[in-house]
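Input record (one chain):
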Amino acid sequence: STTIRLHRNTGLDLTAGTKIYWEVTEYNNVKSRQSGTFAHSLTSTEQTTAISSINTAKSILFQSRTCSATATTAHTFMGGGTITNSTTLTFIGFSLGTVYWQVIEFT
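The corresponding structure, as predicted from the sequence alone:
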């Protein structure tokens, strides 16, 4: 795809400046790519997602997230993800929002 989509949460203070950094990366020797999205809730700070089997030694996880407009401090925006095993991703977070992820497996 040749489209990059950027979104700003309009529930935040619009008088503050916003900086957006992005990059496009192209890879060689890609065996597979899986991606998805899910809503993260405050009821659990850890959430798992099932994926098709991958070789964890040859795979990398990318993730980004949105966060609710009620999050006002830096720690509420934080979160992370890991490849737990060949069929499971685990994400942690501290705010309501949406997690976007993709796993790339190389040959």
